[in-house]
Amino acid sequence: MCPRAHPDNPAAAPASTPAAIVTEERAKLDFSKDMSYGDYLHLDAVLGAQHPLSPAHDEMLFIVQHQTSELWMKLLLHELHAATAHVARDDLAPAFKMLARASRIFEQLLNAWDVLATMTPPEYSAMRSFLANSSGFQSFQYRCIEFSLGNKNAAMLGPHRHHPERFEMVKAAFEAPSLYDEALRLLARRGFAIPASHLQRDWTQPYEANETVKEAWLEVYRQPERHWDLYQLGEELTDIEDAFRLWRFRHVSTVQRVIGFKTGTGGTSGVGYLRKMLDVVLFPEIWQLRTEL
Fold it and tell me: Looking at the domain assignment, is residue 76 inside a domain?
């Protein structure tokens, strides 16, 4: 017989079965007339979006890794666009939260390469021909991220012209002031001597470092207690670029591990092209000033 439960000896009470626990918790079990978890997240569409083209077992890994990365990039753009708008309105407190979240999203994107790196060269070769010319090089969301962070390149509009809706998204990011452009306009509104060439310019052109801009940031960093929110903005931007660099470096490393120095499916030189992209600096003055502090 089971021992009788006693208030001084709770261990003597009979353990509830999983089914009994569900009943005791009054969990809702009938969703014939109500929205369920799967309905809210549209999981039928999300989980039904994986369509391997090859017989290779490892193609599912390749698809899921890139699809989940695109979902994280969608959230990243959501945060970057909102943060940029808040900076433009001198509303820095919510911008800081959004930028901090953006840095954490880059960490998720970084960690995704660890999973893809479990694919060996023979496993990738078994499915590579089925990719044809499709490549992450053509990711319109990645291009929007780069443009939103200031790495403008008109040639990168090309891969998206065949899809009008995506092209308009990329073009809008290309033509808009970047996060860093808005940060410099904020510095100017706060009384710092930012040259007109960096306040009203052709936003489609790549950003060029400027000595006067560096001096403005130096003043912020030399007196952080006086310019605390701008100092914090500078560090949030540093975090963003640091995380972005790590993500790009891990991309290069993973590609070299899986395909070596083969030409990329998108037509680039593969690892060689990716290594050139590592030299891009998004917020140059914020990195330069560290030498002079």
Answer: yes
